[in-house]
């Protein structure tokens, strides 16, 4: 096999897990290649986190401009070019993807596009694409193929009437109306985005709250806010009997005993993800799976020595930052740079306005675990910075051990919530107490003071409420 | 003395130190009164931090609207009503001041307006205002009278041609041109603000960099950015020979051997503060001062038992958040709720765009102390969130102990820098290492990832640069 290339590590998949793992191996001086099916950066960078944030930035600005009178600014004739909004988002994704390719070069990662398959322990083949037929001999393999959007059963994805977030990100025509199925982070962000630009949005969630993984109290405030913004929200509701027509889709929304028909120009499916596993592992390679996700041990190794997996392909929570951490930790362990560490603590974010973020246990989870907990809460209406910014919706909520003050969980809804959660993330990582946060001087006036005051509130010592 | 009221604590001054100390005493069940000369909230809330943030929010929005085309949004005829911008700022200050009065009531703090004077240990008198002649007997007194703006010697403050930030905050007419003397946080913020609305701004600093207390590298990037925005900046420059005319002020700006005359509609003095000490202490009470600031010990007690002082009146760093911490800590110690703690670690913020924030040592200070330090730096151009927001100016810089990774200082310039610094504040308080920050999963995509990547960079392990 003259064409066989030899590596210390082959990474399959160039998303947040794959590219980070490959770069880390490069930093450690290893001979490494990354094989990506589409474009460096994966779903997150090309069809997820990054391009949606670009869209949301346009939506935020458009909303702010509409409220500019509050700030002494008068604007006439505010218009938007939806195609340009979308185009900018693609541009940002393109720029970031080029950045990853640059990082590959800088860190001496060989980069191949194509579909890769593990054909044996220590052997990988490219089965599709321009490098089809290339074989790689490798000491280690890291499977990081991630996930793709789950489709609604029996509803064909046509990219016109029926979309997932992926098709929506490429769609340059603003729909007049949309039914969004699923009110997780993706569903909520698209609902906020389309509504901001004037689409009639119906957001449907099967479970009893929007953002089902978040604290109930947060979800309630968010739902109220989104409804006030004009979004129709139906929780505890199933979608049945989709009828795709030429210009619209009809669907029955079933809430308990009630059934209503809704007609919209587009249906967006945001009902979660499924593993990208098809064709990744040759039949002969008996890698253990669990509901199509790759099973790994504490060191991210599969049941087959030398074959590792990290990121969305090993199962929930399907978050880019968790994927990156896993892959880097896996590669560090693989090459003896410290011990690999599985993820137990991580933040989650939703980038609508008001933003939502959290880390650790919800109050409900603390209750279910029968923990002896206290709650500290601080509303942004009592924050000088929030009032000065005319952006005082929401609150910070911290759940602590009633005896020791150790932090079980933190939940933020409001402006910049996604940035503010970082401090609680560090606090939980370091097993800090709320008293330690309270004793840390926070700059005035900042929203981060609310993080401190919520901690103080759990001790009965908040000054500003 | 039938009119004598008896208290556990009399607080003189209702600013960030005074009101917080009084509220804390109320929380501890003490009989407490707060005497404020003007309006609850003090300079910070009425004439400083809070109203300026309201102004800066208007400026930020106006600037963003001008760039809205980038985001696919078209706006015609953007105008502003400067009087309305100023009016909103006053409204925010008024609202927050009312909030403090509400907190006084809630925490059973008796609130008096008037000028107070310590006439003996345990005795306070109101010497001016509606309550003039009221006497208070008190177990403890907390002097928290703060500071006021320093005036330029031999230059009369007329509120029209010559102002400090206080007069500027009440001035509803946008000046065509302004010379701002002093490029500390206040000078820089006003320079950014006026320039954003079209004033021709000349910012003059005697020392060799804008924001002289900040890291040199940060100040250089900021100066470049402000100059690009249109502000004329002269560092290492003295102002001499002000000539106030009917419609303008002329001043000689002397940089080394060069002298140039500049004429502007207004001169804003932002050259620091002086203690509000006049008339606060009766001559008979021999409280020890140091250059007009009240000298205190580790428990914030002056040389006279039962008389304490906290906040700006005890000297630098003259920051609202430090003042609040000091007063609360002082009151806690006073009433046996833990031990009072003097401040050694605190953040500093400047709210222009790009924002600047820091905590701990600058690189120069680390060098001067001959510390064995490392630098970790991460530019926002490499942050997905910053690029998606089209806001990728600046960087995060962390200075660490080369051996242990303990954090000596952190410096941020960029969007939301003032919020991002909180995490480093907690890290320094907890004596965390950069490795611990690096091992904490930060949400993707957020600007807070740059905080983590700078930490990783100091270890040679940043993924995205």
Description of the structure:
- 2 copies of one chain form a homodimer.
- Chain A is built from 13 helices and 25 strands.
- The mean pLDDT of chain A is 97.
- Chain A has helices spanning 16-27, 42-47, 49-66, 82-106, 165-170, 185-196, 216-228, 320-334, 363-368, 384-388, 417-429, 434-438, 448-458; strands spanning 5-12, 32-36, 73-80, 109-113, 115-120, 123-128, 135-143, 147-149, 162-164, 177-181, 200-204, 232-234, 237-244, 249-255, 258-264, 266-269, 273-275, 289-290, 293-294, 307-309, 347-350, 355-360, 373-379, 395-401, 407-414.
- In chain A, the strands form 6 sheets. In chain A, strands 1, 2, 4, 5, 6, 7 and 20 form a 7-stranded mixed β-sheet that branches. In chain A, strands 9-16-10-11-12 form a 5-stranded parallel β-sheet. Chain A has a 5-stranded antiparallel β-sheet with strand order 21-22-25-24-23, sandwiched between helices.
- In chain A, helix 3 (49-66) runs antiparallel to helix 4 (82-106) and helix 3 (49-66) packs parallel to helix 6.
- Chain A is globular.
- With 465 residues, the first copy, chain A, is an alpha/beta fold.
- Chain A folds into 3 domains: 5-149 and 274-334, 3-Layer(bba) Sandwich (FAD/NAD(P)-binding domain), CATH 3.50.50.60; 162-271, FAD/NAD(P)-binding domain; 354-458, Enolase-like, domain 1 (2-Layer Sandwich), CATH 3.30.390.
- Strand 3 (73-80) of chain A pairs antiparallel with strand 3 of chain B.
